[in-house]
From TrEMBL:
Residues 771-780 have a biased composition (Pro residues). Residues 673-701, 750-885 are annotated as: Disordered. InterPro entries: 6-blade_b-propeller_TolB-like, Folate_rcpt-like, Glc/Sorbosone_DH, Quinoprot_gluc/sorb_DH_b-prop, SRCR, SRCR-like_dom_sf. Residues 853-875 have a biased composition (Basic residues). GO terms for cellular component: extracellular region; membrane. This is HHIP-like protein 1. PANTHER family: HEDGEHOG-INTERACTING PROTEIN, HHIP-LIKE PROTEIN 1. Disulfide bonds join C951-C961. Residues 812-825 have a biased composition (Low complexity). The keyword Protein biosynthesis does not apply. The lineage of its organism: Eukaryota, Metazoa, Chordata, Craniata, Vertebrata. It comes from the Eukaryota. It is found in: Secreted. It comes from Kryptolebias marmoratus.
Length: 982
């Protein structure tokens, strides 16, 4: 069956000996295994995809990720359900964290972020964060963890733990952190190596395309062909060289009765590399009505070897069997030698039957004056085209009227193309699914003589050059220089160091692997090399890439394997256009060592639902034989540190012949494909619900219950210490607001109201308790609520940059803030503020003080003269943060100048200015500067005291910064600046 005369039997290599030589190399490869640590993968253990419709919530994953629109909507709804627990400032601060965390399900690296790449280990309930990001999250929004967990249905492993974790920075981040610094969120977004070719076919450093395989059938004896009926049944028919054709159902089960049993007639032998035998089958394109099939096989007639093309009719009782008594010979061609029997049969889009016949054998096409292939009075070395329709009466076939040599004397009218050596496997391009481009092209692999293997595009009347040429080079010099040769050059030829017997393949036009569209995939029978060609439409040139098996983690998807047996006998396409190849471990017609592999691109799949097929039911007579894969799934293999002999080297197909892996039962996935989510079923939070969360309130820094503010619960040492300069009495640092605070904040924010807010903003529980409306149904187009109006869409693209003025992510960590290194120690405030410390036990001013009306001092003489209750003078430049919920570490910035508290405009205010403010208040640094009154706008009676403030960061107070004159400004309270300190 080997279409190549030379080197038919592989040399007897001692594998153990070879292997010991390779050992150091293999070890090295194993050491490098980390290189491919993490591959794009979704939580359903499948590759990511480009959604069919754009996402509206997790927009950054619209081009490529793990969510389609309905998943996106589900996440959006979960987000708003969670965010119902927040007031506007909480929303602003924590929304971005919640959103980013929820949206990681859509990340193309979702499985990695959730530790879900290995289906046999437990999966995280929340995506793994980078340590710094986790720290920021903890500082700002730690109490949202319980909301997230609640949204996940309170996973048992966190039962009774959540509040403890929330309080403990280290434990919190130990739980949420993903140790891998490159692949944790958000670093994974910016990792250049990971993102460079995201979504494209993965290539190794040499440009070899890394694909994976799925075992589809096994135990076959030299499977030479696999075809489908194109009748909606999605069955496939597999031919074995010794003369069987088997029917496989769409689900992989095989019917035990053969579709065809020609074993008695077929001429072949168990000799490895025998090119004779049952070589091909083609079903009539209208099989359901015409009910005919055509076969191509070797036969011995009167001691003469022939190839025979014959016709069978489907059994009247069983669509899965041919009527064995119906055989009708269409054509027989005498073969002068036992090799080069050709063997391809297919129907063109024109409805005609194409027959590909070899040159008759031996080396160099020796028969006749100039061989058979260039001789149009021989059928050998040709592509024939015949019409088998309407042949029931009379001749078995007719000649299509436009066959190219119909009028040429001495030429067989059946000839469609010539100059063929031994075409082994041809296919017809279905055309681009969208544009139809390429449709109908006929590709063939033509096996070469001593030097070159070639791929040809078959055209009517074409001369493919043999024996004048082999590939692009001359074989028979005299013929080659004959100007009348006028041959069609191959689209590609490769030398024998890459392989010695081409197996033509298919142009991929299926649905499931969008990356492969238009790729012509073929292989070599002797070297086991898989190869691809892609046409550059602009130049018409074909670009070559080898195909290798995905290494390391690349193929760690359920059911995938990354090795194959190296005798690549044939390629195939199923009814949906997915691509397969047929190979065997032992190239003998009697060895049950053949496997059918489906080619899988692990880099990208089609969006869910796009490729679903519904096979039409098939009436089955006889029994079904279920399929059990025998090869070991990559996912079940031990990590690459396993002792060598059990690990199959990834890129060499040779290794596959070393040892057959043990038979495995189908994989059992013990993890659920997705965490179960409770989505928007949960009613909006109510006061009672909030009150039912005692654990949250009891903790010192909890702000959730903003009402309370027992100063004693303040846990942040710096805040307590520096309380004098910090009028906010609650040391709350979290940002989860209860419904009550949501109500407060609404009142507090009504800065346009002329009514003094004094009584309303004290946090007294006696406030009018308007049940808050759940936040208005926000169109899920963005995170934008009114408060975030100033955020530009561009910034929102990066989840971590949701808020306007974040410093680059890495610099948010207090310890790396440059300002901290400057002269002022973290706990030192401006000197003037130092003696303003409260006496112990003294009640601190209410957080809501900022909304009180401050009397403006008359005249300028008021500077510094105003006394507080304690009789102490408040120095000019003292600052405080005013927030609706009384947070000490964040709020609108107010500065005390000349006896009066006023606000600061935001337009030139940066993180450096923010750090001046924060250090005055005893914090280390400013985590964020919030512009456009995101942390609240002052009542209009509060003066705007500073504008155009530009600081270096080292100043003792804002008054020392570059700025406009006190009280001179061209802004409004809509531009009040706020800061978040840490
Ligand atoms: C959580 O606490 C409850 C009540 O104390 C207890 O019954 C339950 O077993 C605890 N669950 C876990 C997982 O510790
Ligand atoms: C495959 O499909 C056939 C026909 O629908 C059914 O009888 C058989 O049980 C299926 N095999 C498997 C493994 O599900
Ligand atoms: C195929 O045919 C041969 C001879 O006709 C017979 O011996 C053999 O049992 C058949 N095989 C099957 C699977 O039916």
């Amino acid at each position: 069956m080997t279409p190549q005369a030379s080197v038919l039997v592989p040399p007897n290599i001692s594998w153990p000996a070879l292997f010991s030589k390779l050992l150091p190399l293999v070890l090295l490869l194993l050491l490098q295994a980390r290189w491919g640590c993490c591959h794009p993968q979704c939580l359903d253990y499948k590759p990511p995809f480009g959604p069919q419709q754009p996402l509206v919530f997790c927009k950054e994953y619209t081009k490529f990720g793990c969510c389609d629109l309905s998943k996106d909507e589900e996440i959006s709804s979960r987000f708003y359900t969670i965010m119902d627990n927040f007031d506007h400032s909480g929303f602003t601060t924590c929304g971005k964290y919640i959103r980013s965390i929820l949206c990681q399900e859509c990340s193309p690296y979702a499985a990695h972020l959730y530790d879900a790449e290995d289906a046999n280990t437990p999966m995280r309930v929340l995506p793994g964060l980078c340590r710094d990001y986790c720290s920021d999250y903890w500082w700002e929004c730690r109490y949202t963890l319980s909301l997230l967990l609640e949204d996940l249905g309170n996973p048992p492993q966190f039962a009774n733990l959540t509040s403890a974790i929330e309080e403990d920075h280290k434990r919190f981040c130990d739980v949420l952190e993903l140790k891998d610094k490159q692949y944790c969120y958000p670093n994974v977004l910016t990792n250049a190596e990971l993102n460079a070719n995201l979504g494209l076919v993965r290539e190794d450093p040499k440009g070899c395309l890394e694909l994976c395989l799925q075992e589809v059938a096994n135990g076959l004896r030299n499977p030479v062909a696999m075809i489908h009926a194109d009748d909606g049944s999605h069955r496939f028919f597999v031919a074995e060289q010794l003369g069987y054709v088997w029917v496989y159902l769409a689900n992989g089960s095989r019917i035990d009765r053969p579709f065809l049993n020609l074993t008695q007639a077929v001429l072949t032998s168990p000799w490895a590399g025998d090119e004779r035998g049952f070589l091909c089958i083609a079903l009539h394109p209208r099989i359901t009505t015409v009910r005919k099939a055509y076969v191509y096989y070797s036969v011995s007639v009167k001691k003469e070897e022939r190839i025979r093309i014959s016709e069978f009719t489907l059994s009247a009782h069983d669509d899965n069997q041919l009527d064995h008594s119906s055989e009708r010979t269409i054509l027989e061609v005498v073969e002068p030698a036992s090799n080069h029997n050709g063997g391809q049969l297919l129907f063109g889009h024109d409805g005609y039957l194409y027959i590909f016949i070899g040159d008759g054998g031996r080396a160099g096409d020796p028969f006749g004056k100039f061989g058979n292939a260039q001789n149009k009075s021989a059928l050998l070395g040709k592509v024939l085209r015949i019409d088998v329709d309407n042949n029931d009466d009379g001749a078995p076939y007719s000649i299509p009227s436009d066959n190219p040599f119909i009028g040429e004397s001495g030429a067989w009218p059946e000839i469609y193309a010539f100059g063929v050596r031994n075409m082994w496997r041809c296919s017809i391009d279905r055309g681009d699914p969208a544009t139809g481009a390429g449709r109908g092209r006929m590709f063939c692999g033509d096996v070469g003589q001593n030097k070159y293997e070639e791929i040809d595009l078959i055209v009517k009347g074409g001369n493919y050059g043999w024996r004048a040429k082999e590939g692009f080079s001359c074989y028979d010099r005299k013929l080659c220089q004959n100007s009348s040769l006028d041959d069609v050059l191959p689209i590609f030829a490769y030398p024998h160091k890459l392989g010695k017997s081409v197996t033509g393949g298919y142009v991929y036009r299926g649905c499931q692997m969008p990356n492969l569209n238009g790729l012509y995939i073929f292989g070599d029978f002797m070297s086991g090399r898989l190869m691809s060609l892609k046409e550059d439409v602009a130049t018409g040139e074909w670009q070559y890439n080898e195909i290798c098996m995905g290494r390391d983690q690349t193929c760690r998807f359920p059911k995938l394997i990354n090795s194959y047996y190296r005798y690549i006998i044939s390629f195939a396409e199923d009814e949906a256009g997915e691509l397969y190849f047929l190979a065997t471990r032992v190239a003998s017609a009697t060895a049950r060592a053949g496997v059918i592999y489906k080619i899988v691109d692990p880099s990208r799949r089609a969006p869910p639902g796009k490729c679903s097929i519904k096979p039409l039911p098939v009436k089955i007579k006889g029994k079904l034989i279920h399929f059990y894969p025998k090869e070991e799934f990559v996912i079940n293999k031990k990590p690459t540190t396993t002792p060598i002999p059990t690990t199959t080297p990834k890129t060499t197909t040779k290794a596959t012949t070393i040892k057959k892996p043990p038979v495995r039962k189908p994989i059992i996935i013990i993890k659920p494909p997705m965490p179960t989510r409770q989505t928007s079923k949960r009613p909006p939070a109510s006061p009672t619900k909030a009150a039912r969360r005692p654990t949250i309130k009891t903790t010192g820094s909890a702000i959730k219950a903003t009402i309370k503010t027992t100063a004693a619960t303040a846990v942040k040492p710096t805040a307590v210490q520096m309380g004098a300069a910090n009028p906010a009495t609650t040391a709350s640092t979290g940002y989860r607001a209860t419904v009550l605070t949501a109500a407060f904040s609404r009142i507090a924010q009504t800065s346009v109201s002329p009514t003094p807010a004094t009584k309303k903003n004290t946090g007294s529980p006696s406030l009018p308790l308007n049940l808050p409306q759940p936040p208005p149904p926000t169109p899920p187009t963005s995170l934008k609520r009114p408060q975030t109006a100033g955020i530009s869409p561009a910034r929102r693209k990066h989840p971590a940059a949701l808020t306007t003025t974040w410093a680059p992510y890495s610099s948010q960590k207090p310890t790396v803030t440059p300002t901290q290194k400057q002269k002022t120690p973290a706990s030192t405030t401006a000197p003037g503020a130092r003696d303003d410390k409260p006496s112990p036990g003294k009640k601190l001013a209410s957080a809501a003080e900022g909304n009180q009306v401050h009397k403006r001092p008359r005249g300028r003489g008021g500077h510094g003269s105003k006394k507080r209750r304690g009789g102490k003078r408040r120095p000019a430049g003292t600052v405080r943060l005013v927030s609706a919920d009384g947070s000490s570490d964040r709020g609108r910035v107010e500065i005390f100048i000349r006896g009066e508290w006023g606000t600061v405009c935001d337009d030139l205010f940066t993180g450096k200015a923010g750090s001046v403010v924060c250090r005055q208040l005893g914090f280390t640094t400013a985590l964020a500067v919030m512009k456009r009154a995101v942390l609240g706008a002052a009542d209009r009676r509060v003066r705007i005291l500073l504008d155009d403030v530009e600081c270096d960061g080292g100043e003792r107070s804002l008054l020392d910064c570059k700025r406009s004159r006190v009280g001179k400004h061209n802004c409004s309270h809509e531009e009040d600046v706020g800061v978040i300190c840490a």
